[in-house]
Each structure stands twice: as C-alpha cells, then as structure tokens.
Amino acid sequence: MGDPKKTTIVLFSGDYDKAMAAYIIANGAAAYDHEVTIFHTFWGLNALRQETHIPLKKGFMEKMFGKMMPRGADKMGLSKMNFAGFGPKMIKEVIKKHNAMTLPQLIEMAQEQDVKLVACTMTMDLLGLQREELLDNIEYAGVAAYLADAQDGNVNLFI
Amino acid sequence: MGDPKKTTIVLFSGDYDKAMAAYIIANGAAAYDHEVTIFHTFWGLNALRQETHIPLKKGFMEKMFGKMMPRGADKMGLSKMNFAGFGPKMIKEVIKKHNAMTLPQLIEMAQEQDVKLVACTMTMDLLGLQREELLDNIEYAGVAAYLADAQDGNVNLFI
Amino acid sequence: MGDPKKTTIVLFSGDYDKAMAAYIIANGAAAYDHEVTIFHTFWGLNALRQETHIPLKKGFMEKMFGKMMPRGADKMGLSKMNFAGFGPKMIKEVIKKHNAMTLPQLIEMAQEQDVKLVACTMTMDLLGLQREELLDNIEYAGVAAYLADAQDGNVNLFI
C-alpha cells in the first residue's frame, strides 16, 4: 500500500461557495483515505468562528474586524451574485432541494472524517481572533507547519 | 520516457481573466505533452455554456440562476476593473491588438489539443444547468473523478 | 539530501491580502531551502510596479490600464472589506501593531532570500506594462518557463 496520499488546502477565502468547494474536495479526499489538512488563513478563518458572540477583551481594531466579518460558516457570503445576501439564500435553497450538504454540515463531516482543521495563528493575531471564538477540536499553527505538510502533498490547493 | 506528466485545474471562477489564465496554462501544458484536465465547477461551468438560449424545462430557482449567469465564455466579466462590462471590452481590444487569443479561441484550442474538459455534475444540479446547454465533447464527473486525476498530477491548481 | 524541494506560485491576484499570503508562503518555503518562484501574471504584475511614475510612450489603452491599476504593492486594495481604501489602512495598522511585515517588506525579503520573481511577458503586453516600470532584479518569462518549474514542483499554488 505504501504511505497514504496527502491533500492540503489553504482556505484563504471567506466566501460560502469557495469554502464549500474546499470542504467538498477535502471530504472527498478523506473518503479516499488521503491525509487531509485545511489550513485556514485570513478570511477563511471565518469558517471556523462560532455563531454565538463570545465576549472577549479586544482592542478597537480587533473589535472592528470582529464585527465586520461573518460569525461562522452559515453567515458567509458568495464570491459571485451575492446580491446583499440573496445569493446565499438561493444557494442554501437549492442545496436543500437537492439534498446536498450545507457548509456547516460539510465542516462537521470533515471533523468526523479526521480532516485536520488548522487555524493560522499569524492571521488570527492580525484580525484579532482568539481561540475562544473558534470551533473546538481544531489545531493552531503557522506557515512552517503548513509547508511541512504541503511539501509531501499529492494535491495542494489554494482556495 | 516514463509516464506522461499530468496537469489538473479546478476552474471554479466565472471570470473571463481567470478562465483565460486557466486555459493558457492548460494549453501550454498540453503543448508539453502533459495529460491535462480542466474540472469546471460552480461559476466556472459558465465557460462551457453555449451562447444560444436552449429552451428547457426548469424550476424557478434554476431559471433564475440560468438568467443571471453569463451564457458562455464570451459573456463573462473580469475579476478586477469590470466597470459594468467596460473592462472586458478593453481586454478583448488589447487581445486583438496583440494577436493574442480570446477565451472562446483558447477553449477551442484546448479541445483540439485533447485537453479533457469536465463539467462537475454536482454543481450542475445546484445551479440547474443541463447537458443540452453545455458545449459538445465534454465529460461529466464528480469530485471522485477529479481526485483520481489530481492525486497523480504534477501540477494541480485551483483557479 | 537529494534535490532541493521546489515551490512555485502563480500570483494572478492584484489584492494586497492575497499577495501577502503568496509572499508569506514564498518566504517560508525559501527559509526551508526550497527553490521558490513567484510567477506574476495579470493583476499580480502590479505588485512588481515601481511607485514612482515612469514616463513612457504608450497607446491609449495601455495608458488607461496604467492609470487604473495600482502603482506598486503598497497601493493595492483588499480582496474583502476594501471599503474604498479603509480596509488596507486597517490591515497596515494591525501589521504595524503586531510587528508583522508589510507587503513591500515581504517582497524585499523574498528578493534577499533569492526567491525568483518572474513577470509574465504575455500579460505585460496585454496590460501595456514595460520593463522600465517594474522592480529591478526580476526575470521575464512566459507560461512555458512557468510549467518547466511547476512540473517538478512539490508545492504549486495559484493565488
């Protein structure tokens, strides 16, 4: 059999549709017994935010970012045809109609399949996000850890 | 010589300029005897739409998506400086001036070079796109087929 | 030890945050002794523009593109929450606060670490950019040279 194949995804984007694509590929690769890592950086970190407001001590800029960015996967907008939130409603409608999975469901499935979900600590600092605000059972690392995974990766994507 | 090299591209974007980049890399790789696959998903499917309106039975949401999305490569907008359609005109102008290839020409060339053009069936369902609306001589597959190609790929990109 | 690992990045995007991600990964990979290439194409070329206006003979379209596109890394906008230039100010503020590196500093560091910075000659022609306008000590090449690097790459990304 040899070593398992590896898939790594940098999820930079904070768009619902792009994050869906990332998690669909990740779940597919995990089903094929790949070792899969999603490294969430910049706006991609929003997919890992908890929906409920967690009161934390923050500076002014950190509060601003915290308020302006979507709180969790379900609140994210589309990369195209967002139409002030109407586009995401349409997408969620057709997902339901076709019995496909929503982004929060895809994330849950990824966790069940042991996809390694990593939050980029450097961009957490920049955007003022703290561990208490993010999902449980994720890992925290920097670009060095990402590269250590990716340099042996069979499929490496930046989304 | 060994096995041929492989290039796979996920074309997620529905932007004219990003699709141009995807097809330029694909055509270049095909010229270097790579086996090349472009897997069109989400808005990238629009590059495969036929220009003419094909009357088909569709539900309300599917009709909405069908109307709002560009019908074919030539109708797509730019990722930057779109300016309500003025940007694409500028790009097409300079393409002509420099004897470069337009996106429809790049797609035609890819088909002549046997680049495998695949439409993602799952997102076709979501966006309500049917086979009758898409170009001839393309393939239909899901994420499993993409991963089977990509895991042996030398160059794998998400665009 | 064997051959050094290789990282290649196509920088298509002209966004400050995406270019930051590209250069952070590139600098990280260079620190791990990878051979690193960033291939700047389309709007990504703007990261290589000099800040000062260089008077050059140009046609009408080329002048238009030249005026509309940001002149250098420091002038680039954000992919999200740009808010007419307020977003970049916020990002630069938090970068300073956390002693992180700005995009111009990351580019300088990449040059010091011998990251190969390449400008795509085909899209330079399309956008009317000339060598006199770009940074010193960069290389000029087309898609063939990119593919020659990428087909042996361990980590290949499109940003």
Automatic annotation (TrEMBL), chains A, B, C:
* One Pfam match: DrsE_2
Q: Which SUPFAM superfamilies does the entry link to?
A: DsrEFH-like
> InterPro entries given for it?
DsrE2-like, DsrEFH-like
What PANTHER family does this protein's entry cite? CONSERVED WITHIN P. AEROPHILUM, PEROXIREDOXIN FAMILY PROTEIN
Q: In its UniProt entry, what is this protein called?
A: Peroxiredoxin family protein
- Species classification: Bacteria, Bacillati, Bacillota, Bacilli, Bacillales
State the organism named in the record: Heyndrickxia camelliae
Q: Which domain of life is it from?
A: Bacteria
